[in-house]
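lol so apparently i was supposed to do this last week
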Amino acid sequence: MAVAVGEKHREVGKSGTVVPGPVLLLGAPGVGKGTQAQAIMAAWGIPQISTGDILRSNVSGGTELGKKARALMDRGELVPDDLVNQMVADRLQLPDTAKGYILDGFPRTLGQAEWLDSYLAERSGGLPVVAVSIKVGYTQLLRRITGRRNCPVCKSIYNIYLQPPKVDTLCDLDGTPLARRSDDTEEVFEERMRTYESLTAPVIEHYRACGRFQEVDGELPVDAVTAAVMAAVLRLRGAAS
Ligand code: AMP
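anyway here it is w/ adenosine monophosphate bound
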């Protein structure tokens, strides 16, 4: 079953009153940041900027950045801040970010968070970031990560345990054989969780302390999480939800 976006979420975008600005989706590996970012992207027409996706396309394209990142990613470790910050700065230059964007998987260290805060402060007229943290328990995360599959063509996300495709391991939408990320094994997941606890959990505390922060329960059905994330963004922007 592919992830669908409820009509009620699209309506918010149609009203024309929502300018989401920069939205950070925070949370451990497997909480559903990518799934939620795709739903919000469809509803509000703002791009998803996933540092993991950009790095993976550099790895598959064999770029210099990809060569530096590959081994670190395969071990579940982080790519150095200066490389990732530059990558994000380049992406934020593109005009599709004018109304807002969803950062998925960034910032992941306090250094990245501080870099982002000052980068945005230097850009005149921009809205400040709002941060939404998605929370899911460890056992559920493990199932989500080890069962996660994606369609390399249309990018739909499935889970062989929780949201299986209708036929074998083929994409419901275009019939492409589904792929598994090389770092979605149990062993690498454990390392990614250690990295998360030591380096990324403090980022959540950083944004909690700044205000414009809300936590949502990521164990609810996908559509309910999307509704909660969007309501949180609207509330943090001071708009009715
Ligand atoms: P993700 O797709 O967000 O789970 O990221 C996959 C991998 O890409 C991570 O385990 C890191 O090795 C790397 N990565 C993604 N985002 C960042 C980031 N903001 N900082 C450093 N490394 C990152």
